[in-house]
UniProtKB/TrEMBL annotation:
Molecular function in Gene Ontology: dihydrolipoyl dehydrogenase (NADH) activity
Gene giving rise to this polypeptide: lpdA
NCBIfam families referenced in this protein's UniProt entry, alphabetically: lipoamide_DH
EC top class named in words: oxidoreductase
InterPro entries to which the protein is assigned, alphabetical: Class-I_Pyr_Nuc-Dis_Oxidored (IPR050151), FAD/NAD-bd_sf (IPR036188), FAD/NAD-binding_dom (IPR023753), FAD/NAD-linked_Rdtase_dimer_sf (IPR016156), Lipoamide_DH (IPR006258), Pyr_nuc-diS_OxRdtase (IPR001100), Pyr_nucl-diS_OxRdtase_dimer (IPR004099)
Taxonomic source organism: Massilia aerilata
Subcellular location as annotated: Cytoplasm
Similarity comment text for this entry: Belongs to the class-I pyridine nucleotide-disulfide oxidoreductase family.
A Pfam family hit: Pyr_redox_dim
Reaction(s) catalysed by this chain's protein: N(6)-[(R)-dihydrolipoyl]-L-lysyl-[protein] + NAD(+) = N(6)-[(R)-lipoyl]-L-lysyl-[protein] + NADH + H(+)
Name this protein carries in UniProt: Dihydrolipoyl dehydrogenase
Co-factor binding comment: Binds 1 FAD per subunit.
């Protein structure tokens, strides 16, 4: 057992935690980061849910499954004939694991490069120590750390359905959904959010019959509904069976299947039997058992840590970022908060603009947006004007053979300031960055319309949508 003193201790090595630790070290602080995640060999698995069982492995499987689908369906149109196509699922999963390991190892390297001390184990607050705090580490070794500032970045866990715990074999969270060892004949997905749609897409592409059960009456209710309807139409055409407005009833798990009883949108009773069931109904903050009571820190009724606009908790010197606090549960939001907190500890003015945080769903077509939707603007009584441009009129999209979707730009009716940009289509995840930059600098739709975009590119669709705000699109 050792006792060590630091300026900053970060509990949690996910996107918010490891980035906060690196930025604090860059600012000259002596920094420690604690993380308990363990890989298959018992070693550390830095990167949190995002790297280990979230963003990174899901994108690896989405890419692999998309290649498989293209080889089976789209290549022929390009003059590429593929004979004897077969799926090597173990290799697909092995590649996914190698991508995860590369990210894990990359964070270890970054800690060494920036002189961040890493402790593999569970970090728990153990009380105040002078002007700072004591944090115990329990893991392969037992350590006691002290620091004037503690940043809590412990992330979140998947929410279970009451009475239906995850076993990660038949009833799956995101963790189990990324590691199914054989393509299920019938796959059920409860929840048509980011995780449900992405994982449903992966397994549909490689041969599963996928049924998505969503409780809300509208598809992707948080998304601009013009974009959401276009996406739903595309997913349905691909073969995803999507049921909205359902009410889940009894779920009975067998040895090799699971039976789901539910009422459909008309109230009629339905029963479905699936080989596997993915439950993706949201996430809950990972805040239990961290010793908050030892320093007088209280959680709210939902288990979140209450913070002010600058991520300060009610206990001076303790900060919290990412999924354990208010705001969207997004890795890049956590990163921005982690950097901002490190800079605030250093006396600087870290800043996070919630209005320009982009959202992405990495399906095919991809869905990405930033800012407000038409529905939100109507509800708030904001006068606006909107322009759209379809990818079917974009030369690069035609060359790619991927013309599904559109770009939509919404601007203030009086000032022309961009209020929101919404995209469904190819590489929307990359295209949205131009909109984020534009909105951060309070650009007008006219600004984007006047900027020269390379031809032929998908980004021309953004320019054309901006032109369409004033009804002067050139190519549609």
């Amino acid at each position: 057992m050792s006792e060590q003193q630091f300026d900053v201790v970060v509990i949690g090595g996910g996107p918010g935690g490891y980035v906060a630790a690196i930025r604090a070290a860059q600012l000259g602080f002596k920094v420690a980061c604690i993380d308990e995640a363990t890989n298959a060999k018992g070693g550390p698995a830095l990167g949190g849910t995002c790297t280990n069982v979230g963003c990174i492995p899901s994108k690896a499987l989405l890419q692999s499954s998309e290649h498989f689908e293209h080889a089976g369906h789209a290549f022929k149109e390009h003059g590429i004939d593929v004979a004897g196509l077969s799926l090597n699922l173990p290799q697909m999963l092995k590649r996914k694991d190698s991508v995860v390991k590369a990210n894990n190892d990359g964070i270890v390297y970054l800690f060494k490069k920036n002189k961040v001390s890493f402790f593999h184990g569970r970090g728990t607050l153990a009380g105040k120590a002078g002007e700072g705090f004591t944090v115990n580490v329990s893991g392969p070794t037992t350590d006691t750390l002290t620091a004037k500032n503690v940043i809590v970045a412990t992330g979140s866990n998947p929410r279970e359905l009451p009475g239906t715990p995850f076993d990660e074999k038949i009833v799956l969270s995101n963790t189990g959904a990324l590691a199914i060892d054989a393509v299920p004949g019938k796959l059920g997905v409860i929840g048509a959010g980011v995780i449900g749609l992405e994982m449903g897409s992966v397994w549909r592409r490689v041969g599963a019959k996928v049924t998505v059960l969503e409780g809300l009456p509208a598809f992707l209710g948080a998304v601009d509904q013009q974009i959401a309807k276009e996406a739903q139409k595309a997913f349905t055409k691909q073969g995803l069976e999507i049921h909205l407005g359902v009410k889940i009833g009894n779920i009975v798990k067998g040895d090799n299947s699971v039976t789901v009883e539910y009422a459909d949108s008309t109230g009629a009773a339905q029963t479905a039997v699936f080989d596997r069931l993915i439950v993706s109904i949201g996430r809950v903050p990972n805040t239990i058992g961290l010793g908050f009571e030892s320093v007088g820190l209280q959680l709210d009724e939902r288990g979140f840590i209450a913070v002010d606009d600058e991520c300060r908790t009610a206990v001076p010197g303790i900060w919290a970022v990412g999924d354990v606090v208010r705001g969207p549960m997004l890795a890049h939001k956590a990163e921005e908060e982690g950097v901002a907190v490190a800079e605030r500890i250093a006396g600087q003015h870290g800043h996070v603009n919630f209005n320009t945080i982009p959202w992405v769903i990495y399906t095919s077509p991809e869905i990405a947006w930033v800012g407000r939707t038409e529905e939100q603007l109507k509800k708030d009584g904001v006068a606006y004007k909107a322009g759209t441009f379809p990818f079917m009129a974009n030369g690069r999209a035609r060359a790619l053979g991927d013309t599904t979707g559109m770009v939509k730009v919404i601007a203030d009716a009086a000032t022309d300031e961009i209020l929101g940009v919404h995209i469904v289509g190819p590489v929307a995840s990359e295209l949205i960055s131009e909109a984020v930059v534009a909105m951060e600098f309070k650009a007008s739709s006219e600004d984007i319309a006047r900027i020269c975009h390379a031809h032929p590119t998908l980004s021309e669709a953004t320019k054309e949508a901006a032109l369409a705000v004033d009804k002067r699109s050139l190519n549609f």
